[in-house]
Amino acid sequence: MKDLFDLTGKVALVTGGTHGIGLATGILLARAGANVCVNDLSREKLEICKGEFQKEGLEVYTLQFDVTNEADTNRGITEIEQNVGEVDILVNNAGIIKRIPILEMAVSDFRTVLDVDLVGPLIVTKRVVPNMIRKRAGKIINMCSMMSVYGRNTVAAYASAKGGLKLLTRTMTCEWAKYNIQVNGIGPGYIATAQTAPIREGNHPFNDLVMTRTPAGRWGEPEDVAYAALFLASKASNFVNGHILYVDGGILANFGYVKGENDLP
Ligand code: NAP
Ligand code: GCO
């Protein structure tokens, strides 16, 4: 059974993995035996990330490249191939959000979010997948969102990007599943990270919304998402293709809930 989730000898790249969901994912994949690489924009955050891995007695290869920049990404992946090995598991985790109403949002801001959250995964995957096709093996995990399904006010760019990433995931599947490459997505619900801190901390009213809309009645933790990534990175998911695995505490299953209704003692 342990062998099913053993990633020994595999090279995994987690983009934007210096904290939050990406860091939890990288640490778990390393615990499973993978040689983990993490890129980010900030050298300082990469150093902090290295420290977090070392606290767990784990190694990580860190490097700086911007997933929206094709030349920078190609250079970065070449560096990984020269220093660690060809990428077997790609977690397209890097992402941003800008919470601005549509009419107030500059088109440039809209484009920036799509660039990181939708074009970025395309750029990194295009550079990594040819080796997977040659080897007839690979795992690609795109970090989608419950906003791949729902909209909500102020997140038009983010939801558009994550909705697009859901369909990009399915299209990648159509083109590459025949080469034994499993392409899937993860759709986290509301997870306690830096990205959601502005709508979670300091008794923000959004907390009440998350609590009533999430049947599990809590914010998710980055590790909750990392466990799904381990499954999709492992042999256990070799016949799972084009699937978005929602890790959302049941929020997508739930129309709504009246506080106190049908609560058991
Ligand atoms: P986070 O804490 O904001 O981390 C995102 C990471 O992406 C950061 O390390 C960031 O680096 C990096 N990044 C941003 N732009 C980049 C670029 N151009 N090139 C390389 N790296 C870049 O976010 P998170 O909450 O852990 O979320 C991780 C992923 O899950 C994102 O795709 C997010 O959309 C998705 N997600 C999150 C939630 C949630 O509730 N938290 C729910 C659903 C989906 P810097 O810090 O240096 O900018
Ligand atoms: C928001 C949140 C969400 C989460 C996540 C939900 O402003 O609604 O940031 O977008 O980040 O994407 O799945």
Task: Describe this protein with a few key phrases.
binds NADP nicotinamide-adenine-dinucleotide phosphate, 265 residues, alpha/beta, 7 strands, 7 helices, Rossmann fold, binds D-gluconic acid, 7-stranded parallel beta sheet
β-strand number? 7
**H/E element order:** EHEHEHEHEHEHHE
Q: CATH superfamily, please?
A: NAD(P)-binding Rossmann-like Domain
Helix content: 40-55%
* Helix vs. strand class: alpha/beta
Bound molecules: NADP nicotinamide-adenine-dinucleotide phosphate, D-gluconic acid
CATH architecture: 3-Layer(aba) Sandwich
Quick one: CATH class? Answer: Alpha Beta
The overall pLDDT average reads 97
Q: Which consecutive residue ranges, at least 5 long each, have pLDDT under 50?
A: none
Whole-number count of domains: 1
**Largest sheet strand order:** 3-2-1-4-5-6-7
Give the N-to-C terminal Cα separation: 38 Å
Computed CA radius of gyration, to the nearest angstrom: 18 Å
**Apparent shape:** globular
Portion in beta strands: 5-15%
Q: What name is given to the CATH topology?
A: Rossmann fold
